[in-house]
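RECORD TYPE: inverse folding
INPUT: structure tokens
STRUCTURE:
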């Protein structure tokens, strides 16, 4: 297949800005040289770990390894010792790439180390002859149902996803992307860093997300913003007091949210203050991106758009049969096929086989409905967000959105728990806007029943000081227990 990063070999692009982290910037010519030096250091390596801090050295390390045909295992710097030890034992990297002077935790002590100097220069390797199925990344899943599994993502999947998003978002070399996402995950690394580099555009990383940083970069020529719902919630909260932020968002070409559902309430607040709609997309580690609202389409709050070019998507019943109706109400599990899929879970042929149907559809475990026009609305994970109550299949996501529209609710999560009569009853976990005066069960049940349907009202409410979240802002529902 062709190079993942054609601009690195294009002399006409050598002076174009490629990366900026704070005051540290690299042009395409400088990035090509620095990536070439990394490639030289990796001669003979098969797979390497990258200590994925939000720094230019991480971007250079990953780019250099991919050009050299060496698979990359991004490591979360916040990982605990047990998780880190499992990932290292499972992936068996030949060495670890870091920024100079980085202090690494004990599980990495025995691993040879290469320090990435962004000022080093060497001719970049030519990756154009590498096979499309050659492994590019091994990204570990969150491990909510056991130890994390390493999803092997081939070069084909990276290229297919980024090119499909370019089509959907009209993404070109003229775009400048700003974000503050971590670089150990698909969102920040593949979409947020490799995406601009494949297009020949520029990425400006904030280091740490702040609304002031977003406003500064968008008002200084950036055209796109990537974020997770937690970040957009902070944006929505800050807008009334930060006119420069409202101006910046209003002038952006594209605002994209992902990694979890963006509450409708935050969609509406941002749209009201800026006149701009946030675009949502849907993907996961194993599939990269599956669907998106298109830049030239309708950004309908609560939907993740339509399948991307090349992606097949279907909803199925519990028995595997296709969902009969695209009526915006009938819930089914999402299954996908396409060039965006991973090849296997590393060292886990059993898990790989279980993840696919006999005819090659990947079982995502995500539950959704489809509107009559084909737009997909995610209602939650099968394991934690599908509630079977009183004969109905109910998605937690739409109830959470309804709860967040209540003025006395700051945060909300919905789960199911066993009920002798209903099978499962709906439980609302609520962070009150005023802890001294939390909303009652009756208030919240009536509020939900009036917006959705009576059978979707919560039967139990539990008040919390905060919801448990992971590094990507996703609510960790398995941590929500009665005691």
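DESIGNED SEQUENCE:
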């Amino acid at each position: 297949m062709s190079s993942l990063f054609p601009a690195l070999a294009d002399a006409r692009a050598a002076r174009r800005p490629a990366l900026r982290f704070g005051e540290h910037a690299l042009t395409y010519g400088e990035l090509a040289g620095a990536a070439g030096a990394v490639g030289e250091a990796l001669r003979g390596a098969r797979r390497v770990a990258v200590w994925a801090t939000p720094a230019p050295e991480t971007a250079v390390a990953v780019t250099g390894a991919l050009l050299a045909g060496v698979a990359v295992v991004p490591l979360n710097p916040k990982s605990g010792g047990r998780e880190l030890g499992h990932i290292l034992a499972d992936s068996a990297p030949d060495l670890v790439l870091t920024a100079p002077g980085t202090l690494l935790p004990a599980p990495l002590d025995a691993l040879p180390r290469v320090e990435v100097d962004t000022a080093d220069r060497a001719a970049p390797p030519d990756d154009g002859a590498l096979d499309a199925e050659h492994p590019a990344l091994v990204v570990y899943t969150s491990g909510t149902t056991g130890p994390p599994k390493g999803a092997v993502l081939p070069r084909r999947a990276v290229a297919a996803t980024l090119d499909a998003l370019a089509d959907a978002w009209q993404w070109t070399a003229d775009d400048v992307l700003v974000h503050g996402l971590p670089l150990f995950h698909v969102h920040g690394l593949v979409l947020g860093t490799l995406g601009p580099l494949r297009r020949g555009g520029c990425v400006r990383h904030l280091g740490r997300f702040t609304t002031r940083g977003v406003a500064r970069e968008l008002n200084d020529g950036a055209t796109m913003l990537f974020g997770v719902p937690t970040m957009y919630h902070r944006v929505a909260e800050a807008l009334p007091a930060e006119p420069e932020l409202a101006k910046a968002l209003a002038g952006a070409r594209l605002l994209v949210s992902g990694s979890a559902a963006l509450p409708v309430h935050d969609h509406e607040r941002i749209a009201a203050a800026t006149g701009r709609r946030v675009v949502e997309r849907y993907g996961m580690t194993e599939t990269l991106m599956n669907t998106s609202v298109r830049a030239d389409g309708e950004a309908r709050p609560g939907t993740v758009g339509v399948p991307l070019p090349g992606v097949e998507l279907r909803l199925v019943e519990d028995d595997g049969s296709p969902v009969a109706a695209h009526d915006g109400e009938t819930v089914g599990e999402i299954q996908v096929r396409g060039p965006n899929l991973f090849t296997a879970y590393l060292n886990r042929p059993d898990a790989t086989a279980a993840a696919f149907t006999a005819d090659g559809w990947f079982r995502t475990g995500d539950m959704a409905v489809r509107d009559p026009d084909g737009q997909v609305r995610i209602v939650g994970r099968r394991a934690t967000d599908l509630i079977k109550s009183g004969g109905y299949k109910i998605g937690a996501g739409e109830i959470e959105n309804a709860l967040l529209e209540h003025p006395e609710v700051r945060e909300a999560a919905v789960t199911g728990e066993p009920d002798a009569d209903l099978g499962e009853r709906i439980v609302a976990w609520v962070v009150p806007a005023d802890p001294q005066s939390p909303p009652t069960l009756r208030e919240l049940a009536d509020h939900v029943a009036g917006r959705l349907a009576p059978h979707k009202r919560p039967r139990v409410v539990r008040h919390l000081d905060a919801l448990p979240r992971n590094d990507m802002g996703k609510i960790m529902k398995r941590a929500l227990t009665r005691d």
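NOTES: DSSP finds 13 helices and 25 strands in the chain.
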